[in-house]
Amino acid sequence: MTSSPAPIPGRFAGVEFVSLTRLADLGFSQAFVDLARGGWPGAGNYMGPKSAIGL
Fold this sequence. Notes:
The chain is largely without helices or strands. It has one helix and no strands.
């Protein structure tokens, strides 16, 4: 039996699909949740720094 390596801070520990209703519970900002729920308005256009989209 092998064990998983310890997570490295600042790196992804895993990826999973979740409902948009759970994003805020997982630590995503309301600005990011609103963009996701809105179908990513402005996708393909420069949106400024990542802080502008709630990251």
